[in-house]
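In this supplementary section we document a worked example of the pipeline. Step one takes a protein sequence of length 137 as its only input; no multiple sequence alignment statistics are reported here. Step two produces a three-dimensional model, which step three serialises into structure tokens for compact storage. The input and output of this example are shown verbatim.
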Amino acid sequence: MFARRLRAPASIACAPLARWQSTKVTGDVVGIDLGTTYSCVAVMEGDRPRVLENAEGMRTTPSVVAFKGQEKLVGLAAKRQAITNPQSTFYAVKRLIGRRFDDEHIQRDIKNVPYKIVRSNNGDAWVQDGNGKQYSP
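The serialised model returned by step three reads:
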């Protein structure tokens, strides 16, 4: 009853649909599987995907990031040093994406991780490293 109809010329209304149905690829296609514990990257070669290997020759990379001094570590390198740098090594951060700090799941996670989960200015859950720098998930 209260809905309004937006009327646009057919050429404008159908343009996004035509693009979506197009099968012509004009550039490289990359797919990223961002997992809570492991992540993976693939590219399309012709009509088949090819999973890329990381620096260690593995097809999956631990979803871990660490900050150690001025150094930024990712994957296995970050995971290996986590025991000596727990406050600045972040893992399972995917669980924070789109969540508010007050969310019951976040409040439970705060008790189970060695790094700090903090409230951002807008109320979202962010992480904070050992030096006090905050990062959005």
